[in-house]
Fold this protein.
Amino acid sequence: MSRRMFVAAWLGGDAREEAATVLERLRAEAPEAPVRWVPPENLHVTLRFLGDVEEDRADDFVRRLGPELSRVAPFEYRLEGLGAFPRRGAPRVVWAGLSQGGRELAAVASRVEQAALEAGVLDRAEDRPFHAHVTLGRPKGHRGLGRLRDLLGELSFRGQTHFLEEVTLAESRLTPRGAVYGAVARLPLGGAGAPRTKRHTEGEAS
């Protein structure tokens, strides 16, 4: 049996509230924008999308990744800045950026990818550079986005400093309401403990 999985750094409570606040402002001030906004409990930084993963390969992946992450000390991160991908043309992703912790997240993402390659979860390395960001929403069309584009350039967003202490192997199930996430395993940084596997739960992967 395979499950659609990805590895992410889930936002802690305070950081999640910061991102949710600016998300709600975008939603309120650009109500005509056809965007599927991310529920606050699902806000995270994706470190690597894995695709469909068999159970035994997922277990091997966790066994390989756990020791790698135990060598990485918990680190600070700060949410700052807003934007959209692509930078020109119709946006497909609305995001909040990071002014601190991006380099460390990139290093963690590299360890995640290497463990996934070794476990046979991935068959090739990503050829695009890693860009740490939190997806706030995904536009569903091209029209009605003018005000949203303006807001992304006008609003000033800068959160407080927070600590990242673990990453999550998560499952993504696609439903008519959008993606539903569940934690498969939590992997602590800095040797804070052994990886913990979890049963599927809807909502926040924690």
